[in-house]
Amino acid sequence: MDNQPLKILIRGVNWIGDAVITIPAVRSVRRAFPDAHISLLVKPWVSEIFRESPDIDEIILYDDSFKGYTGRLKLAKKLREKAFDKAILLQNAFDAALIAWLAGIPERIGYKRDSRGFLLTKAVPVEKDILQQHQVYYYLNLLKSVGIEPADTQPYLFLTDDERRSARDLLSSYFLTDKGPLIGINPGATFGSAKRWLPERFAELIIKVISELNGRLIIFGGPSEIEIADDIITEINRLKIKLKIEKIGSRILVMAGKSNLRELAALISECDVLVTNDSGPMHMASALLVPTVAIFGSTDKTATGPFGRGHRVISKDLPCSPCMKRECPERHLNCMTAVTADEVFNAVREILPVTRAVFLDKDGTLIEDKHYLNSFDGLVILRGTKTGLKKLKEAGFKLIGITNQSGIARGTVDREFVERSNEYLEKELGIDDFYYCPHHPDEKCGCRKPEPLLLLKARSEHLINLKTSYVIGDKESDVLLSWKTGAASILLSPTPLFEKTSASYIAKDLKDAVEWILAREKSLL
To answer: DSSP readout, 423-449?
Structure first.
């Protein structure tokens, strides 16, 4: 019995945006208990956020069959049969604590809220300062209070290759050209009209994106937001006639009411920028590391704004804001009407990824692969590397290093050496920045190639257009990394390759790779 893995139940939250915000907390539980069986209890509409999460072993749906008191007893019985050792209640409700108590879970951890403290074995008080921070830290603080250290603070939403492929197929079948930035528009918000920017302003913005940026646009929304999308299109048509603009429709794809949550996430991931109200899709975009312009009115941008770098939040500092109300009590929505289309458009231009980059693997691409290199004695820069990278810099590319360093987690490589060697290569080779993953493959993190988290971070921090960029590496994981982000890939293979690869080009060395990139760029002019 002692050899049985710990069984942990996490009670998730009930709203999509809040669920995204809890992803780092769920990740931290997995990191603290790598061998545990972790189950997540959530409402059905939230479950899709976690469907591909490597941190969850089982999703238990809290659906309509568990309504009412008898339904709670039925759910508690089901949970009791699973014999959980520990319950971590991310949801604040009394109901969450009651069900965990009824289920006989011996350790029950949660915030001391909603008069439920007596049902918890560890009731964590809510300190005032934690309410003044982003809600990501609210959930991480709960765990830290019981000795679980944060694994990471950045929410990251995992997508499958099939989901990415379906999104790209849809976009390529609708848009006749892939030229011009792809801008997502999310005009809805379920909390109430006080959170929604005006349809006519969205229409003005869309006209500007098309006419000044040659942009393509996707209008998102759920079934209840189809009318909002229709209002925007009606206003666009009115403005089009007034401004004598033609060929607008072919650059706008309306997806309101036409996609499920996973399809929405995949389409958002393909966008260069998302413009949105404070909403669930806004948080999904930040967890996909898509640069986001978020328009805030009645809600608190500090607590629930898009998390991470590279975003812009537009709000007005009015005496009544944030009022946290669903409908404007003054009925004039000053906080929203004061936000102009020009302001939002300028924010889009500020964060629009436009820089071309070449992403470079480290071991076997820039330097000799010594298998867990851990000293400068064995660091040898490959022949021709400095000359080749200089040509790329002269052609206007940023150079970004992307490397898996699982030796850190294995205990065979010192993290300080990895960082010092990266700094050395930056100086010697003119590399602009280095990103590395220190985790063991078994951790299934989002930053280990071929998962694209590190590339997405680089996009946010350096305004890199991934679709006009390249990845060079000596492993198929580098090729898959480039595919996930829309970049072109070059696989270094000094000997004939007999395995299947989806690389854009197979180069015998870095010099060959550089020449191919420069020739390809010349042909695209």
So the answer is: HHHHHHHT--EEEEE-S-GGG--SSST
